[in-house]
Amino acid sequence: MKGAQPVVECRGVGVDRGGVRVVTDVDLVVEPGDWVVVVGPNGAGKTSLLHAMAGLIPATGHLSVGGLDPGHAPRRRMARVVALMPQRPVVPEGTSVRELVALGRTPHLRRFGTETAEDREAVERTIDRLELVALADRPALDVSGGELQRVVLARALAQEPQVLLLDEPTSALDIGHQQSVLDLVSEMRLERQLTVIAAMHDLTLAGQYGRRVVLLHRGQVVADATPAEVLQPARLAEVYDARVEVLQRAAGPVVLPVRDPG
Amino acid sequence: MALDLPRVRAVTADARPATRPRLRWTTLGAGVTVCLGAVLVGCLVGPAGLGIRGVLLELLDAIPGVEVDSGLSVTQQAIFWEIRLPRVVLGVLVGATLAAAGTAYQGVFRNPLADPYLLGVSSGAGLGATLGIVAGGAVGPVGIPVLAFVGGLLGVAATYALGSSIGGGRGAVVIILAGVAVGAFFNAIQNFVQQRYDDSLLSVYSWMLGRLSTDGWSDVLIALPYVVVSCGVILLYRRTLDVMAVGDVEAASLGVDPARVRLVLVLTATLGTAAVVSVSGLIGFVGIVVPHAVRLLFGPAHQTLLPLALLFGAAFLVLADVVARTALAPAEVPIGVVTAVVGAPFFLIVLRRHKGTL
Asked: Which residues are within 8 A (CB) of B349 and not within 5 positions of it... i.e. 6 or more apart?
């Protein structure tokens, strides 16, 4: 993929929320098919950066995603290029899993139209692929946290995007479900040549799944390289104000919290 | 796109239900039947007995090219065409519009308690229409819905601004409280205006309690264009309303502009509400009773919910009017009283059902 036209390009991107600058002067170029993990302490600007890429909040500077300017492109066009898997999905009462996944077809429908046979087929294929067939007719409120993340991933995939934005996709899950959701994202990335940009809290998982790690601190990029280069104990100690040890393993660096001996 | 996935298992298309339970013809047929049944009851019940045979033949006779003798006398024909039928048709328009507006407000505000009456829209429209009535010839019958529209918009804007500025995390209930306060405020001004111009007090008073006129087709003709536009636009947005249910951030990420949808639908629903308030006064709770009953029976997908809410709203109001006409015959109970008697307890049920989420 080297040398291909970048699918995401941020140059000097800034985001203000409520008069406070939460993202400052971010430069980030992402090649198609890459998996970039954005890490950083709470309030570092991870979610704001993802939302700016999806055009959900206004941003300053130069921002281009899939050839579109997220701040100005029509919402429908934007949603055919970028899909967002939210941190805490809103699940309406009485909506079935299938109906929730079908909402992903929204940007592909004619204006004021409803699903065509083709749309329904795309939804069924995605439901099948993510092994949600048994859940499809259940109310989405009744499924477990891990299942709900798969449902929301299915909805994002039904959008047929080029870029998949994940906002802490595993923060509500136990360790097994964290792995199964990330494995699934990894498979779908390869199958559909998706570009994945994920904000994550768990640094070990970030290092194992991301091909590239971007460390945000107070809205600025303080490191952007391979997991092994970014996840250095001294840097993490400074940015997170934490005591950590980093073990190098074949699967990637393991970030270990260390209790204060005193 | 790369949809031909290697791991897809063989799927037989007919072995599974459709992606989205689309509006089935049987469901729609049931709704139409209920609505027509209510219309027939509305045409039949009244002090002058017309008889089901006479009414049906009279309707058949009205079809161009069909000539039958209904057996109704000239007086009975006049009662049917100039009193009974226009009143029932007005009931259909008012009921369908209030139910559609309620569904739209509930959808865009994501608030199960939203209703034209509880959001202060009806009271604002009532004040606007009252000012139009006391102004008399200066605005005329066509100007009254316009003033009602302005009043209704002021009502919903004030409610929304007040509710969201103090709402915090308890938005849904606070917005309704704000709506009740705004409604009371508009009602107070409206009462004041009424007292100041007591020459027109009686007509305004009976109108404010909600009533369907027996005055020929003029009210139907005034309301009809607004009702058609309002219900038509709301129906166009039926799938967009399903997207709005997942919240502004997710709706935007799915390709919908939530602020624009909210603006268009609030304008449209308020226009329809204002038009029906102008001709029928303040009729509360239709917008909350009907959509919730349909949701309980057929689920929340607007594809089914909206058409059925229109049909059942029409049926509900026509039947409520039958009760209003007959409960204390020959006197009439204001129809707003009838809908409130049914609607207020229903409102409490809705409140209870949503107690965990409000």
From this structure: none
What DSSP element (H or E) covers A64?
strand A60-65
Query: Which chain A residues are closer than 8 Å to B253 by Cβ?
Result: 54, 56, 79, 82-84, 86
| pTM recorded for the entire structure | 0.88
Q: Which of A84, A90, A138, A163 to mutate to test the interface with B (most CBs of B within 10 A)?
A: A90
Side-chain half-sphere exposure of B301, counting CA atoms within 13 A: 19
pLDDT digit string, tens, across residues B261-315:
999 999 999 999 999 988 888 898 999 999 999 998 888 999 999 999 999 999 9
B270 closest CA partner among B110, B100, B21: B100
Secondary structure element (H or E) that encloses residue A86, with its range: none
Q: Are A190 and A35 in contact (CB under 8 A)?
A: no
Cross-strand pairs, A230: none
Q: How distant is the Cα of B37 from the closest Cα of chain A, in angstroms?
A: 30
In DSSP terms, A245 is beta-bridged to A256
Distance CA B69, CA B72 (A): 8
Q: Tell me the chain A residues in contact with residue B20 when contact means C-beta distances shorter than 8 Å.
A: 98-99, 102, 114-115, 120
* A104 vs B contacts (CB less than 8 Å): 254
With CA atoms as reference, the chain B residue closest to A73 would be: B255
Mean pLDDT, residues B50-63 taken together: 84
* B7:A129 CB<8 A: yes
* CB < 8 Å to A112, chain B: 236-237, 239-240
With beta carbons less than 8 A apart as the criterion, state whether B95 and B273 touch: no
Nearest to A99 among B11, B237, B301 (CB): B301
Could you give the 3-state DSSP secondary structure of residue A66?
coil
pLDDT higher at B52 or A161: A161
Mean pLDDT throughout B211-226? Answer: 85
Complex-level ipTM beyond the 0.95 threshold:
no
Yes or no, beta carbons of A112 and B237 under 8 Å apart: yes
The Cα of A233 is separated from the nearest Cα of chain B by a number of Å equal to 36
The yes-or-no verdict on residue A262 having pLDDT over 90 is: no
Query: Which candidate, A235, A203, A191, A202, places its Cα nearest to that of A217?
Result: A235
- Residue corresponding to tokens 């709900």: A148
Residues B230-276: pLDDT tens digits?
999 999 999 999 999 999 999 999 999 998 999 999 999 999 999 99
